[in-house]
Amino acid sequence: MADRNHNLALAGMLALEMAVFSFTGAQFLTVGNAFEIARLSVELGLLSLALTPVIVTGGIDLSVGSLLALVAVTFGKLWRDGGLPLGWAVVAALVVGLAGGGLNALLIARFELPPLIVTLGTYSMFRGIAEGLTGGADNFSNFPPRFLFLGQGSFLGFVPPQTLIFAAAAVGFAWLLHRTVIGRGWYAIGHAPAAARYGAVPVGRRLALAYLLSGAASAVAALIYVAHVGQAKSDAGTGYELLAITAVVLGGTSIFGGVGTIGGTLLGLFSIVVLEGGLRLSALPSELTGILTGVLLLAAIGASSLAGRIPARFPMRRVAIAGGVLAIAGGVWLFVAMRPRGGPGVRRLVIAVMPKAKGDPYFVSCRVGAEEAAAALHADLIWDGPTSMDPARQNEVIEGWITRRVDAIAVAVANDVAISTVLRKARANHIPVVTWDADAEPDARDYFVDQATAQGIGYALTDEAARLLGGHGSFAIITGALTAANQNEWIRFIRERIAAKYPGVTLTAVRPSDDDRDKAFAETQTLMKVYPDVKVILAISAPSVPGAAEAVKQSGRGDVKVTGLSLPNMCKPYVHAGIVGSVVLWNTRDLGYLAVYAADALARGTLKAGAARLHAGRLGVVQIQGTDIILGPPLVFTKANIDRYDF
Amino acid sequence: MPPLLAAAAVTKSYGGVRALRRVDFELQAGEIHALVGENGAGKSTLIRIFAGAALADSGEVRFEAHPVTLRDPLAAKALGIAVIYQQPALFGELTVAENIGLALESGGLWRRIDWKQRKRAARELLSQLGSTIDPERRAATLSMPEQQTVEIAKSLGARARILILDEPTASLTEREVTALFGVLRELRRRGVGMIYVSHRLEELPGIADRVTVLRDGETVETRKMAEVDRATLIRMMVGRDIDAVFPKREVPVGDIVLETRSLTCPAAGVKNVSIAARAGEIVGLSGLVGAGRTELAEVLFGLHRPSSGSILLRGKPVAVASPDVAVRLGIAYVPEDRRRHGLVMPMSVAENVSLARLATAPGMRGLDFQGENGTAREYTSRLAIKTSSVATAVQTLSGGNQQKVCLARWLTAAPAVLILDEPTQGVDIGAKAEIHRLMSDLAAGGMAIVMISSELPEILGMSDRIYVMRGGSVAGELRRADATQERLLALALGEEDAAA
Amino acid sequence: MRREASVAIAWAALLIVLAFAAPGFFSAGNLRDLLLANVSTLLAASGMTLVILAGEIDISIGSMFAVLAVIAGLIARAGAPMPLAALTAAGAGALLGAANGGLVAGMRMPSIVVTLATMILWRNALNWATGGAWIENLPSNFQWFGLGQTAGEVFILTVAAVLVVALGWVLKNIAAARAVYATGAGAESARLAGIPVRRVVFWVFVWMGAMTGLAAVLDAVRFREVQSNAGVGLELKAIAAVVVGGASITGGRGTLLGTGLGVGLLASIGPALTFLHISPSWEKAIQGAIILASVVIDFARGAEARKNG
After folding, report:
1. Which residues contact B362 (CB under 8 A, 6 or more apart)?
2. What's the pLDDT tens digit per position in A488-504?
3. Beta strands in A320-371 (DSSP E)
4. How many CB atoms are located within 10 Å of the residue A471 CB?
5. Chain B residue with minimum CA distance to A176
6. In chain C, what residues touch A128 (CB-CB under 8 Å)?
7. Smallest Cα–Cα separation from B152: which of B120, B119, B118, B186?
8. What is the pLDDT of residues B359-401, one digit of tens each?
9. Considering the domain C2-308 in this protein, what is its CATH number?
10. Which subunits count as partners of chain A given 3+ CB pairs below 8 Å?
11. Which CATH superfamily is domain B256-493 in?
12. pLDDT for res A319
C-alpha cells in the first residue's frame, strides 16, 4: 500500500517535471528526445535494476561503478592487446563481471560480512585493479562498427539498440523479483534474515544470486558504455553507484530491506534522467540537477517516512500534493528566473560552449573570456559540461544541445574518440562545431581553436624543466588524475623530447594529484624525500603547481624549483618568491574569447570553410592555418612579466 | 493506605483495535500482584502504560494516589518503576557491568564514569542473586537465563519501588526460579510492590499475594491468591471451562522415521546424541534450558553442520546441509523464538504459510498467487486462525494465532518429522489445547513428532517417550509409563544415572 | 582491545617492511608531513567514529568539508580574525550537521539516504556558487593562523592531538559518550533505559559537522588559498579508517584508538608505495584489499571464537 502511494506520488512528480520542461525546454517533448534520454540512461538503468533486489534484501552494492570500469578495461585489453576475437572478449567481460559479483557474493552470502563494508572494499579494489592494469592511462578505442552499433546505432532510425537490452532486463528483473520463488525469498530475507533462514529460504544462495546479478548487470552496462562512448578507460562509471542507489531509493525501495519494486526503480530512474535532460534543454546549469535530485530524494523519503508515522490524520496523498505544488512553484520560479533576458523581438544566437570540467580553475578562467565575447556579440552563452573529467557526460550534454538546436557548439574535447560521433551528428543537423583546447577527429568539427598542440606543450614544458636544471639532473612530474587524457599525452611528448634532446636529464617519477591541490602538495613532499636528487618538479595540472610550490616552500629546500602549466594568478606569490621558476600557459581568457567568436562567426556564416583569417573583436585579426585557428604561442610567465596578466 | 500504583478506567487503542477498556488495577507496597490473562487480553499493554512506553487514551494512572502522566520510560524510571521484559533488553556489545551501570547510575550526561565502582556494584548485585557472571563479559555472549539474571540484578540495584516482571521464569531453570523467588520475597519484605505476569499458573500460589485477571482488554476480577485455585483462574481467563489440557491419544506406532547415531556438533554444543522417533510417536525432549535441546533440533534442521555421527531418515543416512534440504527430506522445525525465527512478521499470512513449500520449488518457478491464497485460507479455517484475511500481516495477529500460522506453514510441507520447540510458550490456554489436539491428530496420521518443552506437565502429558538432555548429550530415556516429574528433573540435573 | 591489536599488527608489519626497504620513511620531516597531511582525515574519522558507534553513517562530510573550507576562506578574506573564521566554520559545520541530524533523528529517515542527498546537494550548490573558482588573495594571517610555518604546524598538530585524545578519553569515561554506544548497541533498549536516543543521534551529527568544519580549517590554513573542490572522497576515507579500526558498522562497538590506527594504516600506504617505488596506479587496489582483509580477518577470528566458545 505504501508502495503504491509512493509510486503514485513519484509518477505525479515525474509528470510534473515533464510538464514544466515541455514549457521551459526547447524540443523537450519530442520522440527523438525521448529515445535519446532513454539511450543515455541505459547504463545507469541497468545498475539501478540490479541494485533493486540487492537493496530489497537489506544489502547494498557500492562496487557497481568500479566493476563497470574493471570490466570495460579488461574487455578492451583482451580485445586489443590479448588479440581475442570480439565475441570472446564479450564473453570474457561477462565472466569478469560475474567474478566481481561472485567475490561480493562470497564475502557477503557465505562469510556473512556486512555488505556496506565488503562493497566499500571492492569499490576501491575493482577500480584499483582497473587502474593498475592500465596504469590509469591506457585508453582502448577503435572498436569495430558492428560493436559500436550496440551503443550508438539505432533500429528503424530511432530505437537505440541498448534500450532493447534494457527493456529486456527490466522485464526480467521485474519477473524475478515479483513473480518467482527467488523474489519471494529476497523479500523475506530483507524483512527478517533469521526468520527467512528458519523458514527454509536458502538465504546464502539467494543473496549470492542478487550480488552475482549485480555483477552481471555491471558487465553488460560496461559493454554498452564502451559501445556508447567508443572507448574503455579505468575512470569509466565513476560515481555511478551513488546515482543508481539514488534512483532505487527514490523509487521507494527501503534501504532497510523488504520493500521495493522494479516499477518504482524505473520511476525513480526516469525522474532523475528527465530532470537532468530537461534542465539541460532549458539551458540551466547542470549543478541544478544535483541540487534538485538531492531535494527530490529528501522530499520523497521524507514524505514516505511521514506517511508511515501518521497515516490516520495526515494521508500520504496530501503530502504528495503539497510536495507537487512546491515542485511546481519551484519549477516555475526557476523558469522565470533563469530565462535569458534578451530584448523583445530580437533573435539572439545561442552559443553552447563546453569545458572539459567545469570546476577546473583553468576552465573557470576560460569562461571569463567566453562571457566577455558573448556580451560583445549580443549572443546567449550556454556554458555547461561535466563537473569533473567525464567523456560520457560530455556526450550527453552535446546530445541535449543537438535536441535543443543551439546555433553553434564549441567543445573542449576530453576524449577525441568518445566525442567525435556525437559531434558529427551535430554537424549533420547543421549545427556548426568548433573544438577548442583539445581537438576531436578532424571531420567531426569545422574548426579547431588551437592554443598549442600537445606536442608544443610537451616540448615547451620539457625545455623549461631542462633550463631550470641547467641541462643536467633529474625531475619529477605531478600530473592531474592518472587517467587524464591530456596530461598523459603531454607526458608522452615530454619523454620523447628528453630522449631526443636532453641526454643529461632524467624523468624520475610521475605522481598523480587528481587535480586536488592538497594531494599535489602531499605527493611533492614525499617525492622530495624519496628522490633527494630531484631538483625540478614539473606540475602539469593547474591546481598542482601551487600545491607543489607550497610543498617546496614549506620544506625549505631552496635547491628545488617548480615549473609547469598553470594560471598566473594562482602562482604569482610563488613566482615572486623564486620557488616557481616559470609557468607556461597561453592566455586562457583569450582562448575562451576566441572560441566564442569563432563559433559565432560560423553560425552567422561569416566564417566559411577555407578562410584564412578571422576578425575576433579585441584580439584583432587571427590567422587560420587549414582548419586551425591559431591563438598564438604559449606564454612563459616569469618574475618579470607575471604581474601584467590577470587570469 | 493508598495503593502504590493504580490504573483507573484506563483505555488504550492501537489503530482502531481496542487493547484496554476501562481497566482498573491496584498495586500495594510489599505485595506481589499476579497479572494473568490469555494472550491479547491486554497484559502487555497495561505494562507498557505503567512503564511509560505507551500513553493511555483515557483514564488515569496514579502513583501513591496522585495522578501521573508517564510520557516516556524516563518518567516511569524516575518514579522508581522498573520493568523486566520477557525478551531481555541488554546491549549485546556492552559489558555486563556497563549494562547494569546504564540502568542504575543517575546523574548528568557529563558525569565521569567510575569503572571500578561499576564493576564492584555489578559483582555485588549478581552475587545477591547467587550468580557468578563476570561483569566484564560482553552481554552478547550470555545465555538467555544469564541475561535474565542481569536484568533482575538491574532492578535489584535500582532499588525500584515497583518492579514489573513480564514472564520472568519463561526461560529459567527450576533452580534459577527458586533463586528468583527468594529474591522477590526479600524485595517484598523491603516493601517493593511487584506486578508479576506469567502464563505458568502453577507457580503463582507459591509467590503471589493477589491476582488480577484480564480478559479481552477488561478487568475480570482481583482476588486473593489463596482464595482461587487453578481451575477457577482458568475459568476466569477463558470465561469457560477447559477440559483436560493434554489430550495425547494412543495411536499405533510405526517404523523408525528419524534416527541419529552419535551425532556431534561442537559449534552447537551437541555431543554424541543417539535418538530415534517413530511414525505416530510424540517424542519429548526434556532438560534444562541450555541443555542442547534447541541446538539438537537446529542440527537436525540443517542450521548447523554435525562434525561426526549421522542422521538417518527411514534407515538411510542423509546429509542435512541446510533448512531447505531438510524440508526436501521431510523434516520440519517450528522454532522457539516466534518473532525472530518463526515468522517473517511484516509479511502476510499467505506469504508466511507458503514459505516452506517454496523452499522445495525451483527458484525460477513462477509464483501461483491463487494457489497460495487458497492454501492459506484452507489452513486458517482448519487451524481456526483468527485473522481478517490471508493478506493480513502476521505481526498484527496474537501470539497463539501466530504460532498456528507457523504450524500451518510446516504442515503444508507435509513433513515426515515435525520438530516443535516450545510449541505452546507464550500461547494462551485455548490455543494451547488446540495445538495439543492438533499434535495428536498429526501423530495419528503417521507423522513422527519431536517436541521440546520446558513445561514438565506438557512433556509428561504429550510424549510417548522422553529423552532427557544434559550438557548437550542425552542423559536418559524414559517411557511414558515410567516418567514422573521427579525422574525427569533428576536426570536433567544429573542426579540420576541414565535409566532404561 | 583484540581488534585494535590486529590493526596495530598490520600497520607494524608495513612499517617494518619500510624500516628495511626505505628507512627514509621514518625521517622526522616525513613523519611530520604525514601527520599534517592526515589531520583532516583523523578529525573527520573521529567524528565518524561517533556516528558509526551510534549506528548511523554520514557520507556527506566530503561535500561539507569543501563548503566549510570556502566559508572559512570567505570570512578570513572579509577581514575577520582567524579564530573567528575557524569558529564560524565549525559552527557552520554544526549547522550542516544539524540539518542531517534533524532529518535523521527528527524525521526518522535513514541516515545513508539523508546524507547521500545532502552530499549531492552541498557539492552541487558549492560548484554553482563558486563556479569552481578558488578563494584567493587571503590576508597573510590566514596561512598558519599568522603564526609562521613551524609554530603553525605545532599548533595544528597540538589542536588535533588534544582533540582526539580528549575525545578518546570522553568516549571511555563520560556518560554522554556511553549513551552513544548504547544507542548504537540497541536503540530500543537504550530508549527503555531512559536514554534520549533521538537527541543522541541528532547531536552526534552536529558533532560530526563541527569536526568537519574544524578539519576543513586546519587543512586550509596550510595553504595560501582555499580550493573549492576539496574533500572529494573524504567520507570513504573516514569510514574505511573507522571500519578497519574495528568498529562495527551496525553500531555499539569501536574505539577511537582503533580509528586512529585505521587512519595510520590507510594513510601510510600511499607514501609507502612511493618509498617502495611501486606504481601509484595500484594504490586503490591495495587499499581496497586491506579493507577486505580487515573484515575477513575479523570474520575468521569470530569463527575461531565461535568454535572455541
Report:
1. A181
2. 889 999 999 999 999 99
3. 350-354
4. 12
5. B364
6. 282-289
7. B186
8. 888 888 889 999 999 999 999 999 888 888 999 999 888 778 8
9. 1.10.3470
10. B, C
11. P-loop containing nucleotide triphosphate hydrolases (3.40.50.300)
12. 53
